[in-house]
């Protein structure tokens, strides 16, 4: 399915839909992380924003429930150069695309994110709209210009939990969750005394 990202300055990019169908509106920003896209998606500080990932391929290691920073994705939309169709990681619960669709996050891929990043770096963040299907880029530009600006917006009430809750570790003691998941307990001592050989300079 086709998709378009339109900015308030009249710039627009044509790509393909990489998540849920529909429209996403928000402030368009970029993130230069090479990994951690699920943490970015679920980071409450990105509420109300359409996040552009500058790494060339996103989604190659899928998504895992243990990598989320909040209960659901917080971004308004998601932009990628290339969306990986495979989730190649033993920890993965599923693909990035399925995750985006399940949480109703509109995303676009196959656009020049380098060019978009240069625009945002030079002009600053701008309001934008991602639309999927048969959409008119001119109409999307007008919709982007009509989005209220982020200045003064109270987004905390939208991303905070409804009531206090107690966080419990998945395992009985500190560090055991990591040991169970990765097989190596942090700060685990050897069963015998180890000797470290000194280095000599030539």
Task: Write up this protein.
- By secondary structure, this protein is α/β, with parallel strands linked by helices.
- It has one domain: Carbamoyl-phosphate synthase small subunit, N-terminal domain (Glucose Oxidase, domain 1, 3-Layer(bba) Sandwich), CATH 3.50.30.20.
- It has helices at 37-41, 96-102, 113-123, 137-145, 156-159, 176-182; strands at 2-7, 12-17, 23-31, 49-53, 57-58, 77-79, 82-83, 106-109, 126-132.
- β3, α1 (37-41) and β4 form a beta-alpha-beta unit.
- The chain is globular.
Task: Map the helices and strands.
Layout: E1 2-7, E2 12-17, E3 23-31, H1 37-41, E4 49-53, E5 57-58, E6 77-79, E7 82-83, H2 96-102, E8 106-109, H3 113-123, E9 126-132, H4 137-145, H5 156-159, H6 176-182
Parallel strand pairs: 3-4, 4-6, 5-7, 6-8
Antiparallel strand pairs: 1-2, 1-9, 2-8, 3-9
